[in-house]
Amino acid sequence: MSTTLKQRIILLCVGLVLLTAITSLASFWWSTNQYNDKQVQQGIKVAQNVYQQYLKAKERLLVTASTVLTADFGFKQAVASRDQDTIQSALFNHSNRIDADIMLLMDLKGNVIASNKDGLVLPNNSQQLMKQLLGNGKESTFIVIDKQLYQAIILPVKAPRTIALSVVGFAVDEKIATELKELTGVEMSFISHATGLKASSIELPNEQSDLLAFIHGQTTTRWLSDYPVFISAEVPLPALSSNPISVILSANLTEQYDEFDQLVLSIILLSCGTIVLGFLTSGFLANNLTTPLQHLTEMAKRFSKGDYSAGLTDHSPSKEICELVDAFQEMGEDIQAREKQIRFQAQHDHLTGFYNRSAALERLAKKLTSNPTLYLIAIDIRGLRHINDKLGPRVGDDCIRAVAKRIEEVTKDSNGLHARIGGDEFLVVMEPTVGSTVEACVAKLNQALVKSYMIRNLDISLRFSMGVVIYPEQADNPEDLVRRTLIAVDTAAQDSHEIYYYQDGEDEEHLARLKLIDELKQALTNDDGQLFMAYQPKLNLKTQQIDKVEALIRWHKPDGQWVSPELFIDLAEQSGLIVDLTQWVVTTVVKQVALWQQQGLNMKAAINVSAQDIAHDDFFPHLESQLALFKVPPALITIELTERDMIENEEKGIAALKALKALGVMISLDDYGVGQTSLGRLKMLPIDELKLDKVFILKLDESQQDQHIVQSTITLGHQLGFSVVAEGVENLASLNLLDQMQCDYAQGYYLSKPLPSTDFLNWLGDYHQAG
User: Fold this and answer.
1) Phi/psi zone of residue 88: left (φ > 0), alpha (ψ -120 to 50 degrees), beta?
2) pLDDT per residue over 147-156, tens digit each?
3) CB 640 within 8 A of CB 670
4) pLDDT tens sequence across 110-124
């Protein structure tokens, strides 16, 4: 599904804003999380330093109090004498002085001598406990005494030897944990791992006793996912190995989560607002851009319909749009100019400026509706090809221009229509003037055209043939008028007339010829038996045997009508079908000769071709391929070429004949004696046989002149090394004369007319039996 430019611009802008917002949000989320993690870790580290300083301060108080107590001489005497009241008083005073939670005196066996707490119960292994405490020197140790966690220090009372042990300590409880929380901002929890005793700033629910499980299990739901409430760090405290004690520093993340979520929500709302603003802005921008483009589209559509007057209706276009509109308008003007030029070129001849044939038909149709009478004159320049050959095509083109200019000048008073309908053919349509006749109009035009022309400093005289048709007497529509005019000028050119008036019925004859050409094409394509070969025997006068035939094409239409070979062969040459027709003849004859060979008959066959045939690029390859295909020796085939064809295409014809000679086929010069072949040219032709035209043979027995001509020609042919054939033998007397003249072959109706292959074999059998 295609989208409009406006939609694409909006999608692009909104997409960019959305991508920027998502990228910014993701970047903010990541960086904020990193920052918060660092802040939390920094807070825990600070809290750790604070509580350490706090405990160090407590430790210094304990050391000072213990040192003062154990160094007091009176206290030492009281301990030595076991003065219970004095000991108790000293312990009480010193504990109050530093606000110690526990202060006691123990003998070396671990028994309590005196204490500031009544009913204090020491562990069973108190003696061993005291030894471990003594091992820490003046550093405090976290211990559990009577189910209470203390930060304590132990110092010996010496007088001078150790007589007792003094223990001073501060209780580590929820109050201390809360104070540290207030100082550090993180939750403080002291835990004895051996006894499970704990002191924490965190209030546990009644049903919850495991502090660590509670801390790690606290979660909060945000963004459809669960996040931990606390991030914790556990730090071991100096304690007895039998009862390790740790402090748990827990940072509560709830407030940070809330602040972060508020900030994210603000960014999301800001992004949504930006997207809405981007949508509105891009829509406005796209509308400003696409509206002129829509107008330009409308302009292009109007241009396509030929309307180049369209302009921009936008009241405030941008500079670029104005430049684009100007370019469109310039393009429209250029297209309009080119269309005008193209239309002119499509309707006119580029050399003369006259209408071409199709445009002339259109103009003629309009003239027919407004004129009761018109004269149509087709003009053919005779011999223009020779001018092109001898003086060059530029001179020929100048001749055409000069003729066109003169036609225009002569017919300007008759509101004439002029067209060039061929290389050297013009069509003139004239309206008759008052008192004029068609003969007078045509004669005036002819007299003007035949005057000499000065072309490139050359005085050139041109000859013309004209064909004339009168509207409406001889046709009433443009196509028939032009066709009949061309028929008339063709007749004039063929019969060397200067002026020829169309005669009724000639068009029908012309159409009949066109129909016949089409039927001939169909007969060649279908090869359904309409066309067939007839074979006329040639008598070898020396052996009195029939060893040659001439192959002649015949056409018997399905409706029973026979078509004259001269007619349809002439039509084939005019229409370009002669090449296909000749190829069909070659294939048929070569195939027939091959069939006769298979039947034991070694018969030579002559094929009539024109110079147009043998000069065609496909003739030689086709003949060669057919001989090879049917395995026919080339010597059994004779190519008969008329003397007239050789004269018209001498150079190319001789080259083609030499190639055929090299192939091995025989060459015969047909219709010899009625053309213009000189003895010098005859000597140059690569031929094997002369075939005397039947005009000398038909009445040979009656004409002494014909006998002299034939006798001299036979003698000349033999002297040049040619075999001589006489065609047109109509009687026995002529045949005997030819025999006496030592003619090589005789052919004619006296022997047999041309016969289909089956009838020829029957005739040949009868001939041999009769002989």
Assistant:
1) alpha
2) 888 888 888 8
3) yes
4) 788 888 877 777 766
